From TrEMBL:
<feature type="domain" description="G-protein coupled receptors family 1 profile">
    <location>
        <begin position="40"/>
        <end position="304"/>
    </location>
</feature>
<feature type="transmembrane region" description="Helical">
    <location>
        <begin position="149"/>
        <end position="169"/>
    </location>
</feature>
<keyword id="KW-1133">Transmembrane helix</keyword>
<keyword id="KW-1003">Cell membrane</keyword>
<protein>
    <recommendedName>
        <fullName>G-protein coupled receptors family 1 profile domain-containing protein</fullName>
    </recommendedName>
</protein>
<dbReference type="InterPro" id="IPR017452">
    <property type="entry name" value="GPCR_Rhodpsn_7TM"/>
</dbReference>
<dbReference type="InterPro" id="IPR000276">
    <property type="entry name" value="GPCR_Rhodpsn"/>
</dbReference>
<keyword id="KW-0325">Glycoprotein</keyword>
<dbReference type="Pfam" id="PF00001">
    <property type="entry name" value="7tm_1"/>
</dbReference>
<feature type="transmembrane region" description="Helical">
    <location>
        <begin position="108"/>
        <end position="128"/>
    </location>
</feature>
<feature type="transmembrane region" description="Helical">
    <location>
        <begin position="284"/>
        <end position="306"/>
    </location>
</feature>
<keyword id="KW-0812">Transmembrane</keyword>
<keyword id="KW-0807">Transducer</keyword>
<feature type="transmembrane region" description="Helical">
    <location>
        <begin position="243"/>
        <end position="269"/>
    </location>
</feature>
<keyword id="KW-0675">Receptor</keyword>
<keyword id="KW-0472">Membrane</keyword>
<feature type="transmembrane region" description="Helical">
    <location>
        <begin position="181"/>
        <end position="200"/>
    </location>
</feature>
Length: 343
């Protein structure tokens, strides 16, 4: 994220109120996105943990868990810290509301690099994995084991934590921002676009094969020849289809929401010299693009819920079990109270 540092003497000749208003609106929206993101991803993680239908025990689930954790941390820490800083800037009508608020901004900026960059990697990994799963199913089972996926996820978090720490070294800020922009949103974004196109084409062929398989299965049922193996293959094909649609929607959403941010950042970093008026305008564009990215974070879990019926059933089952435990606990407390009072 690009932050504006303007000398107080320059503010007298500059109409900076539109930028502060943008910060205020951004803070308000982040305050809305934060609880939505936290609740939705908590439910997603709870459903995967309980897994009442044994449908989330595949290696690709670890990518979904990691993405949910990234979104959860974003909603729980990053968005509230940015919101507090933006509210403070608007309240004090300054770009420097105080050291304590700047510390919050520094912390949120550090975490946002890790979280948002991780989103690109995880969605790319999920898209690539699903492409191999529906195109080369036998290779998929050999290449993608739970151990390998876990190692890849852990290594990527370590890498982004180290990379995010570089912004606090002696590396010039513009140099760090350029490296980050080229390596992560740009390169990974291009790879994600290619993976999305390949997955979409493969998915169309996969859907045609699945349709032909369903027709054969329907004919077999009419002749009472439907076997357990055929039913298992049908369920697996349905599961892969649902995951593929989720991967396509997540990748499309990420590409769509990240495009304004990438374009704004390129303009910010490579437009030299830059007048104060233009700096404020491009900074407003960056703040708006940030909000779009956080909106994407809030939508991730809902896309998964929308396209995966077993997830919705798992959440419902988990909530019902929780309510049942509460009812049992209340009944036991009432029973103990009645025994203690002699009634």
């Amino acid at each position: 994220m690009a932050n504006i540092t303007v000398a107080n003497s320059s503010l007298e000749d500059l109409d900076y109120k539109p930028y502060l208003t943008t910060l205020y609106v951004s803070a308000f929206l982040l305050s809305l996105f934060s609880p939505i993101t936290v609740v939705s991803n908590t439910l997603l993680l709870m459903a995967i943990y309980r897994d009442p239908f044994k449908s989330f025990r595949t290696p690709v689930t670890y990518f979904i868990i990691s993405l949910a954790l990234v979104d959860l941390v974003t909603g729980l820490i990053v968005e509230p810290l940015f919101a507090v800083y933006y509210f403070a800037c608007h309240f004090y009508q300054t770009f420097r509301p105080g050291k304590q608020f700047e510390y919050l901004f520094t912390t949120s900026a550090f975490l946002s690099v890790i979280m948002l960059s991780s989103s690109f990697f995880l969605v790319l990994a999920l898209t690539t994995t699903q492409y191999i799963a529906i195109t080369y199913p036998h290779r998929y089972k050999v290449l993608f084991t739970k151990r390998r996926v876990l190692v890849a996820v852990c290594c990527h978090f370590v890498y982004f934590a180290i990379f995010s720490s570089l912004q606090y070294t002696k590396i010039p800020t513009d140099t760090y921002l350029r490296i980050n922009l080229h390596l992560h949103p740009t390169v990974v974004g291009v790879l994600l676009t290619v993976a999305h196109i390949f997955l979409y084409k493969s998915f169309r062929r996969f859907s045609q094969r699945s349709k032909a398989f369903r027709e054969r299965s329907s004919l077999s049922r009419s002749m009472h020849q439907c076997s357990e193996g055929a039913q298992g293959s049908k369920n697996e094909a349905k599961h892969q289809k649902q995951l593929t649609v989720v991967a396509l929607m997540l990748s499309a959403l990420l590409l769509l929401c990240s495009f304004p941010h990438i374009v704004s950042f390129y303009i910010y970093l490579y437009t030299k010299p830059m007048s104060w008026d233009f700096l404020l305008k491009i900074s407003i564009a960056l703040r708006v693009s940030d909000v779009i990215m956080f909106f994407k974070v809030a939508l991730d879990a809902y896309i998964y819920a929308w396209r995966h019926p077993k997830y919705r059933k798992a959440v419902k089952d988990a909530l019902l079990c929780y309510r049942s435990r509460e009812a049992v606990t209340r009944d036991r407390e009432t029973e103990h109270e009645m025994i203690a009072t002699g009634y």
